């Protein structure tokens, strides 16, 4: 069920979360499937609805730095303080977890991933709930992420209470940074470009991008994928047949179904649109390895695995 973001809808969502239900939560990155961090019943529903492997931990969403400090204990205050300037925003920090946190959130790790979302509806709801929620993207495991309320219903069914916060303004998942090592390491590219983060931290981009000791859990090989097979568009391709072509910089070719994605926030919605066309294969231009192109590349590589 999709409801407009009224005061009543937010109160209803708070009640559902307190009762151990899950809700569809609009954020600026993608729509989340949220449960209270204090409800193991709710947290279990996230895994079963998404068919998510239990080894894949959840991101905690909270409305203040106090909320962040209620679930984790950042060791390096210097990096933590600089990075918290991106909040509210599309940045998730992995920090040592408080020991009382449900293992359904951490997947048994001693760390927790946490962020403050920059969506007015999410912030109001978190404020009224008075405690954080755990919220992965509201799609079936490995599928395309939802960037509009209707996508949540398409993925998870009519029964989910989804607050309509409009189309996501970022439309890509958060950038995940681990603060578990001496220097910050990027675990997943996302809505805030690595270059901006390196600059804020005054560290070389190379250091941020270099692989840390631990790999991010739950980064399956196949992820973000439409049902239609997806391939990277080869150079000098002559398009024909029942295929679709998506580009970022090139003008879309004539003769087959094609479209240029004019903004990274339209990436998922365009994949979803092309996935409904009954095509034999979708080819997509590989974006350049900088800025938000990094986040798009990472997703395209996983979706075309
Ligand atoms: P999503 O399922 O799209 O919301 O993405 C959540 C992702 O956050 C997971 O797949 C992990 O890659 C990452 N994550 C969550 N918790 C942790 C953690 N404790 N350590 C490292 N990465 C984490
Ligand atoms: Mg996801």
In short:
The chain has 305 residues and is α/β, with parallel strands linked by helices.
Q: In what order do the strands lie side by side in the largest sheet?
A: 1-8-2-3-7-4-6-5-9-10
**Annotated CATH topology of the largest domain:** DHBP synthase
Query: Which secondary-structure class do the elements indicate?
Result: alpha/beta
Briefly, what CATH class of the largest domain? Alpha Beta
Instruction: Count up the helices.
Output: 11
- Supply the CATH superfamily name of the largest domain: DHBP synthase
How large a portion of the residues is in β-strands, by DSSP E? 15-25%
The main sheet comes to: 10 strands, mixed
Shape: globular
- Helix content estimate: 25-40%
Kindly report how far apart the N and C termini lie: 33 Å
pLDDT < 50 runs, ≥5 residues: none
Radius of gyration (Å): 19 Å
> What is the count of structural domains?
2
Small-molecule binders: adenosine monophosphate, magnesium ion
């Amino acid at each position: 069920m999709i409801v407009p973001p009224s005061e009543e809808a937010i109160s209803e969502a708070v009640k559902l979360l307190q009762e151990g239900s899950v809700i569809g939560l609009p954020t600026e990155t993608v729509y989340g499937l949220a449960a209270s961090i204090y409800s193991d019943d709710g947290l279990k529903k996230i895994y079963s609805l998404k068919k998510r492997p239990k080894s894949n931990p959840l991101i905690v969403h909270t409305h203040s730095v106090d909320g962040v400090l209620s679930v984790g204990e950042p060791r390096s205050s210097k990096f933590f303080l600089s990075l918290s300037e991106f909040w509210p925003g599309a940045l998730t920090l992995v920090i040592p977890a408080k020991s009382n946190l449900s293992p359904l959130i951490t997947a048994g790790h001693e760390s927790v991933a946490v962020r403050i979302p920059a969506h007015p509806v999410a912030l109001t709801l978190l404020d009224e709930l008075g405690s954080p929620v755990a919220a992965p993207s509201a799609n079936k495991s490995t599928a395309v992420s939802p960037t509009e309320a209707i996508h949540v219903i398409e993925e998870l069914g009519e029964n989910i209470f989804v607050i309509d916060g409009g189309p996501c303004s970022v439309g890509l998942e958060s950038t995940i940074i681990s603060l578990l090592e001496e220097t910050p390491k990027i675990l997943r590219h996302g809505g805030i470009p690595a270059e901006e983060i390196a600059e804020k931290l005054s560290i070389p981009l190379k250091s941020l991008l270099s692989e840390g000791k631990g790999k991010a859990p739950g980064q399956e090989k196949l992820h973000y994928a439409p049902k239609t097979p997806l391939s990277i568009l080869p150079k000098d391709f002559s398009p024909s047949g029942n295929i679709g072509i998506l580009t970022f910089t090139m003008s879309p070719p004539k003769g087959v179904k094609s479209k240029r994605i004019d903004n990274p926030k339209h990436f998922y919605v365009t994949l979803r649109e092309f996935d409904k066309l009954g095509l034999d294969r979708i080819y997509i231009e590989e974006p350049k390895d900088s800025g938000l192109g990094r986040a798009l590349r990472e997703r395209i590589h996983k979706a075309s695995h």
